[in-house]
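Dear U.,

Please find below the material for section 3 of the report. The protein was modelled together with magnesium ion; I have listed the sequence and SMILES used, followed by the predicted complex structure.
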Amino acid sequence: MPPEAQSRKRVGSSPEMNLDQTTMSKPLAIICDIDETLCTEFDRPILTACQMIARLHRAIEVHYVTARPGGARKGTEEFLCDQRLPGWRNLYFCPNWQSTREHKTAVMGRLAKEYNVIVSIGDADEDEQASRAAGVLFVRITETNIEDAWKKIAVLVERATRGVDDPLARLFGS
Ligand SMILES: [Mg+2]
């Protein structure tokens, strides 16, 4: 039996603690690309995408992993603010010493360790490759599948948050 399976068995058989609880205790998160996923031409919102992210269950942290350089921070924060998108602190810009592929792969790898990532959303091959390398489920947005892709994401979110209290939804009845 490989060591990992042994420890899982041992942990799972202990009444004090099990592996599921460890997974559950990680915060829920979504990883999202920005360009051609949430907007076009830097700040023209793709409405279906923005509305969905703006209305997300508040237990979910949104992390934006983008190829944009740090110099785009101000405009990007304004876009998130204008669209009422959560998680403006969780912007990961591409450092100029790193390729966008390396950047996305490194950040997603870190996020996957820290969070229970429901899904990673993006439009590019490098988004998909970085997500797969991090072991995270990926949904690709194309010009023609926007509605279907976000419906699929809504189902994943619903499943992941079933039974999780959303104080905002309780307050506003949404
Ligand atoms: Mg993109």
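For the text of the report, you could mention the following: The pocket of magnesium ion is lined by residues 33, 35-37, 122-124 (CB under 6 Å).

Regards,
Y.
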